[in-house]
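Ticket closed. Logging final result for UPF0178 protein QOZ84_09425.
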Amino acid sequence: MKILIDADGCPVVDETIKIASKYNIEVIIMCDTSHTFNKDGVQTIILSKGADSVDFALVNRVNKGDIVVTQDYGLAAMVLSKGGLAINQNGRVYDNNNIDQLLLTRHLSKKMRSAGVRSKGPKKRTKEDDRSFEEGLVKLCENIIVN
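Final structure:
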């Protein structure tokens, strides 16, 4: 088992590494050339910029039972199809019960933006968001280890 981080714009890289080390789980950070990560004891894979280059490389590395940290619903859907587990930066676990609705919402939001409808951006990240992520990741790790 390993944890792969879709690190482009991921605010919980350090939290993920801390939790993974507690459970002795390998971490792989994947990002494009516009980001730089140098974390001791963690493999970093840097890919060329391009539409979804990190996503496709990550999906090619994920195995059944691996955990992926991502805020990308499309990537999460591909991870689930390979038997992996996916969690977002706020601790929400993606699963077969919620992924279709999330993808539909993303599609409808994109259509609205294309039609010129303006919406608010994401709210500012809080310490509570970090705690929720940490709790969610710990729960995922412990469930995998027990099963």
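Residues 2-146 form a domain with the Rossmann fold fold (CATH 3.40.50). No further action required.
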